[in-house]
Amino acid sequence: MTTQQPQVSQTKSFMTVSLIELWERFGYYGMQALIVYFMIERLGFEDSRANLVWGACAALIYVSPAIGGWIGDKVLGTKRTMLLGSMVLALGYALMTIPSENTWVLFSALGVVVVGNGLFKPNAGNLVRKIYEGDDSKIDSAFTIYYMAVNVGSTFSMLLTPWIKDYVNQQYGNHFGWHAAFAVCCVGLLVGMANFFVMRKALSKYGSEPDHKPVDVQKLIFVLLGSIVAVGISALILEYQTLARIFVYVAGFVVLGIFIHLIRSSEKHERAGLIAALVLIIQTVFFFIFYQQMSTSLALFALRNVDLNFNVFGMHLMTWSPGQFQALNPIWIMLLSPILALIYTKAGKNNKDLSIAGKFALGFAVVAVGFFIYGFAGNFAVNGKTTSWVMIAGYAAYSLGELLVSGLGLAMIARYAPERMGGFMMGAYYVACGISQYLGGVVANFASIPQGMTDPLQTLPIYTSLFNKLGLAAVLCTFIALAVLPLMRRLDRQHQSIKK
């Protein structure tokens, strides 16, 4: 019994973090499923502006954890900052329920979401790292299951919010459905916070140093005031695309500069791990350019060039809303995550586990297959519409690639980053993701459809051309990842020998 008790406690602690993460992702992805459509269909944006606004917002959402991780590590505490972030996120989604065509209402609400995510995201991941500190095989497995929990929340919200939008619009007019759907995202955060309060004792022994001290009211006020300023800055960046470009690129250079400084000034035994983390983070930047297509070019492809009916041998099964196709991503991840986690655990026990760098290379290859499926689908389209089953097949490959790359991104930080840099390294990882999210919006604009072009026969070749080019780009990334494998093996051996 005594040997089992620590493991039970560890599992319950992990579940506590996973469940609040699940509900946070419920809110975020419920909003993501609709946001580009909302800007185009409700606010009248052109494709190019909607793609770049959402790309800039996604970039800010991923960049903001660089500060949130530091606040969790040094100012308020990991657990407190995570909970504060969930409260701010709930407020952001509540603001999106305001039925207004004023773009500043949307941009202000998204600014609140940016700040809330920055406070929440790095600290949730850092808590999982603390729970499984020192056990590399368990960290890989835990973060894969953690990634599956994330996708449980996103699946339900991506299926639910487009349906609510359509239903309410049909019943009460063509405006209220959008805002009713965003209200559901807010409710998800409230449920997540209630669940955390019920289970919070399971995390009593985990957290950063400030978590174990009384709340410093002055620091809390400072964080809240800073958050209000950050909301205003974020809204300005979303309105003015020149500011967005400047901010994203400057953030990238600053983090890269800090990273290089840390490598040069770190202890000798930390250096190999930091270099390995930097190489993998750079690869992650390329992956998330592909990932951002899900909510931009692929979402608009589903709107304009996909038959929304699922048919088998001529028999109609069901009809989906265009936004619901994004739920295929988390559905596939839930199906594939347990299988990969089992493979990782068994391979680790037999000392045959593929390195994270090797998994990254395999992930890019699978993503390439996914985009080629979308690209070739145009050859079998009827009147400019591809079958909905193409989306299922493409998302299967796309999601497996995501699990191999993005699903292990946090595990990579947990494995290679020194503990004293945990919060910053989580933040640096998300900054890299943010830069690529914005670049993904830029790439999506290569398939931007001019306003007034509604013929599927005209829009189809624009999308398929982009998807084929993205497939070729993913093949190139695969070869680059394979080329750096010898370097990564050497760095990993150095890192592991020092840890022992």
UniProtKB/TrEMBL annotation:
Location of this chain's protein in the cell: Cell membrane
An example Gene Ontology molecular-function term: tripeptide transmembrane transporter activity
Gene Ontology CC terms, in alphabetical order: plasma membrane
CDD domains: MFS_DtpA_like (cd17346)
Main location as per UniProt: membrane
Keywords: Cell membrane, Membrane, Peptide transport, Protein transport, Transmembrane, Transmembrane helix, Transport
Record bears the keyword Cell membrane: yes
Residues spanning the membrane: 22-40, 52-72, 81-98, 104-120, 141-164, 176-199, 220-240, 246-263, 272-291, 325-344, 356-377, 389-416, 428-450, 470-488
Gene Ontology terms describing biological process: tripeptide transmembrane transport
InterPro entries: Dipep/tripep_permease, MFS_trans_sf, MFS_Transporters, POT_fam
Membrane topology per record: Multi-pass membrane protein
Matches recorded under NCBIfam families: yjdL_sub1_fam
Protein name: Amino acid transporter
Organism: Vibrio rumoiensis 1S-45
